[in-house]
Recover the amino acids of this structure.
């Protein structure tokens, strides 16, 4: 029972990590290796607003999400857009930027265990005999809400539909008058905001550490590869798969193996079914 | 040209998502013949080549080479067995000189095993063998042409280079994908004897073409594809006289007009 | 009759002496011979005399570390610009080679002369095997997986507390004296640099370059692209593991820091600055970057920020790199012509 509950929580956490990355990749085919950096960055921005400026918590969160979204969009607009289309350069450039941000934060003194964000609701409750923090329940709730809202957004709003159109077929979308460069910037902004959302929801569960940036990146990539780059259903499913696998290894083998599970998942997927569970990039299997 | 076909294509179907590029296409290729595959644009000619040579995975259907099932083999294994192809969109190694382009196929296991074209591959120095092959297909030996970088060569030479790349492997089958396209009449005129010479050397050729007049000079059997289906096969005269073929190329209304004004 | 409309265009033409040195005519006179050989001699003599030129032992150590990075940069350049595989985790090779050499030395008591080549070959094979799953796929996957291996291996070692955990393996033998240590490495570096340059012009090298330019044609010629990619990765991995194995004997210690980002990022930055595709450019890039990073050592992880930003700048502005610029100036001259 404990496994079920913590497994679900872990899976939703993974899904939250991956959603921002998946959106950016789905729309503009950019593997955003600065994703983890944006996650940690938004955590620090929230902390700074909260502690250094003394703002209200809710306001800090909202501003931090907006700030991260803007930073992401700016990164895309001024740097990544110039290497658009050259996959390897995109990876190198976004990775280098992510590194610069993460290591820059580390240098600035954000080291160690002293930076935390408070939970939204203190305390815990019991579900079926297992004690669960309210914050963790909130994670599940917010995660489900985010997925639902995103679904509505991409199906019923103009911008959302434009993003979906670009994700499906960029050229067709361009022919319909959708400016693909601008949409890519928007997607990046959104993806960064989603990373920030994940951060503010999940960081209260622990400390703000620079290392988390690398972990989040690896986990997000693992979920997207296993689920299939470009497929939302696949990403959610993969999040659950990896999430439960991680919890199972924690219970039966030890907490250290969590990240190994992620790597194994990637390797297994690449060997067995490179396009992922629900991958749309069938050409990986078609060898043309 | 005896009994068992060298290549048998059996009910090959290929669907790209909702688009059906090939629908239950079946035909045999006999050893030593020159088979033409024709049809209007989009009829699936290049797709069938990709399916035979393993560059695309089939949705269903089988392909047999000398009785062996090669349907699921990767492209390099199929080339290693002796079925080579040219590419419609030419793919030379642009940064290398023309003769170096041939050094690469001469390095392959098949070239080492069979000795390459005319057994030169066994001699060891691939550079000279490359120049020999180029001379055979029409590059002037004593000029600077074989040494020119592939990116600077005109289309006619590049088409021959594609063919040379196939020959370097000492192939049994060469599939030419629109090898006459983009060439002038004189260039085609000089390539036709080359193709006939290849047939005399025992190579089976499958030629996908749009230039029908030139194709009919060399091939004695053609297959017509339209919208992914095989319409008809037979010798050129029968095929061109068939009204379904005319309809495929010209559209039925035009055929009516032509018939009425004839 | 030419009509000038006032527009000018820059034209680049090979220098006369370059054309004269192509082919057998290079031997025709001392002038042509020196045109070809002087740059190479400058490199060789320059590298060999570096240890003498250094004012202190500290700086001699810096030169040695530079050579380690240069080997990594060489392998990165080879993979990225000649085979088309971008390896974002050079630290993977360093760590693997380093730990293997450490084990061979401490557990089995083998001397450095044996552990270094052994770790290079065994490590190279191991790394190639671990990277194999992504070789049949597009280059993106190789980049992703190569990036992750060092990050994950470091965590695994730390978490499982194997192979010395966070303390690392200590008590590794060093080289007999520091002159041997330096000159042997410089020798290896020069040998491998010129060796890889020869390799890319052999028939095998052409096939590897073909994998980058035109892998469909390679398949159509009956050769397995995955197989040749594996060969290329093996070569690069051996060079990388060699440098890692050498490193642990220099420091007499092997630890998680070998999987650190420095070893992944600095070779890339050095290649981009020094000129990708030239195989010598990355070496020069290291000669430039490593001393600078030593000077920045007091600033902590700022140096990684520094490399990362330089890398981004070069990528965005698509600079050609020092060596490519230098080669162009050496071989060609420019002039303005009327359009």
């Amino acid at each position: 029972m404990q496994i079920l509950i913590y497994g679900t929580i872990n899976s939703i956490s993974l899904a939250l990590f991956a959603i921002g990355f998946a959106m950016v990749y789905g729309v503009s085919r950019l593997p955003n290796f600065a994703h983890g950096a944006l996650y940690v960055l938004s955590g620090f921005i929230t902390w700074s607003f909260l502690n250094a400026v003394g703002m209200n918590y809710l306001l800090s969160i909202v501003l931090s999400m907006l700030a991260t979204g803007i930073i992401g969009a700016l990164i895309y607009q001024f740097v990544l857009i110039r290497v658009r289309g050259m996959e390897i350069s995109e990876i190198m450039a976004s990775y280098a930027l992510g590194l610069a941000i993460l290591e820059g934060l580390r240098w600035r003194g954000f080291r160690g265990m002293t930076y935390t964000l408070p939970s939204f609701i203190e305390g815990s409750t019991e579900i079926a005999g297992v004690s669960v923090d309210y914050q963790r329940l909130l994670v599940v709730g917010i995660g489900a809400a985010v997925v639902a809202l995103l679904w509505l957004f991409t199906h019923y709003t103009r911008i959302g539909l434009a993003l979906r159109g670009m994700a499906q077929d960029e050229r067709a979308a361009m022919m319909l008058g959708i400016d693909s460069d601008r949409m890519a910037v928007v997607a990046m902004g959104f993806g960064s905001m989603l990373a920030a959302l994940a951060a503010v929801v999940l960081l209260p569960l622990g400390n703000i550490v620079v290392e988390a940036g690398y972990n989040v990146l690896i986990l997000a990539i693992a979920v997207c590869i296993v689920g299939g780059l470009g497929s939302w259903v696949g990403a959610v499913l993969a999040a659950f798969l990896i999430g439960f696998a991680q919890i199972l290894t924690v219970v039966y083998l030890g907490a250290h193996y969590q990240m190994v599970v992620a790597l194994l998942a990637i390797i297994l997927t690449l060997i067995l079914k490179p396009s992922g569970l629900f991958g749309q990039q069938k050409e990986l299997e078609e060898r043309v | 040209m005896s009994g068992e076909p060298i290549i048998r294509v059996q009910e090959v179907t290929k669907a790209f998502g909702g688009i059906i590029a090939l629908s239950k296409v079946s035909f045999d290729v006999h050893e030593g013949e020159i088979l033409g595959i024709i049809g209007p644009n989009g009829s699936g000619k290049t797709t069938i080549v990709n399916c035979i040579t393993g560059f695309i995975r089939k949705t269903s259907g089988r392909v047999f080479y000398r009785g062996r099932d090669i349907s699921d083999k990767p492209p390099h294994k199929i080339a290693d067995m002796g079925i080579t192809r040219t590419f419609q969109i030419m793919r030379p190694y642009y940064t290398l000189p023309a003769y170096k382009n041939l050094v690469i196929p001469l390095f392959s296991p098949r070239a080492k095993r069979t000795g390459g074209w005319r057994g030169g591959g066994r001699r060891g120095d691939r550079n000279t063998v490359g120049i020999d092959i180029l001379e055979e297909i029409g590059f002037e030996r004593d000029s600077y042409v074989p040494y020119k970088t592939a990116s600077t060569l005109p289309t006619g030479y590049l088409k021959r280079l594609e063919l040379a790349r196939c020959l370097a492997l000492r192939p049994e089958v060469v599939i030419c994908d629109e090898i006459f396209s983009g060439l002038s009449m004189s260039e085609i005129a000089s390539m036709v004897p080359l193709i006939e010479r290849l047939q005399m050397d025992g190579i089976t050729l499958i030629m996908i073409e749009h230039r029908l007049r030139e194709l009919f000079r060399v091939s004695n059997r053609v297959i017509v594809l339209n919208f992914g289906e095989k319409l008809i096969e037979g010798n050129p005269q029968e095929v061109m006289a068939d009204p379904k073929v005319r309809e495929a190329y010209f559209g039925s209304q035009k055929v009516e007009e032509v018939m009425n004004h004839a | 009759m030419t009509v000038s409309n006032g527009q000018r265009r820059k034209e680049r033409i090979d220098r006369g002496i370059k054309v004269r040195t192509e082919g057998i005519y290079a031997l025709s006179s001392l002038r042509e011979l020196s045109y070809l050989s002087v740059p190479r001699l400058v490199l060789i003599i320059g590298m060999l005399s570096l240890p003498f030129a250094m004012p202190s032992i500290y700086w001699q150590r810096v030169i040695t570390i530079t050579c380690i990075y240069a080997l990594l940069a060489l392998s990165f350049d080879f993979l990225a610009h000649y085979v088309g595989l971008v390896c974002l985790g050079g630290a993977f090779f360093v760590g693997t080679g380093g730990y293997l050499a450490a084990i061979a030395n401490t557990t089995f008591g083998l001397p450095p002369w044996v552990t270094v080549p052994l770790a290079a070959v065994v490590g190279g094979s191991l790394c190639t095997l671990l990277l194999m799953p992504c070789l049949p796929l597009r280059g993106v996957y190789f980049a992703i997986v190569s990036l992750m291996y060092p990050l994950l291996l470091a965590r695994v070692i730390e978490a499982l507390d194997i192979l010395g955990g966070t303390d690392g393996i200590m008590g590794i033998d060093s080289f007999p004296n520091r002159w041997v240590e330096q000159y042997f490495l410089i020798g290896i570096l020069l040998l491998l640099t010129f060796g890889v340059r020869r390799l890319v012009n052999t028939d095998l090298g052409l096939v590897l370059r073909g994998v980058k330019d035109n892998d469909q044609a390679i398949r159509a010629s009956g050769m397995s692209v995955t197989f040749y990619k594996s060969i290329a990765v093996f070569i690069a991995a051996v060079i990388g593991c060699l440098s890692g194995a050498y490193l642990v004997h220099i420091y007499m210690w092997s630890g998680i820091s070998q999987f650190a980002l420095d070893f992944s990022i600095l070779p890339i930055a050095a290649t981009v600055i020094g000129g990708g595709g030239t195989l010598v450019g990355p070496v020069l890039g290291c000669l430039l970057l490593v001393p600078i990073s030593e000077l920045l050592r007091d600033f902590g992880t700022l140096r990684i920020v520094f490399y990362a930003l330089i890398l981004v700048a070069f990528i965005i502005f698509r600079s050609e790199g020092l060596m490519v610029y230098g080669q162009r100036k050496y071989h060609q001259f420019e002039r303005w012509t009327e359009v």
Observations:
- DSSP finds twelve helices and two strands in chain A.
- The interface with chain C takes residues 31, 33, 79, 82-83, 87-89, 91-93, 95-97, 99-100, 103-104, 106-107, 214, 218, 221, 225, 255-257, 259-260, 262-263, 266-267, 270-271, 274, 284 of chain A (CB under 8 Å).
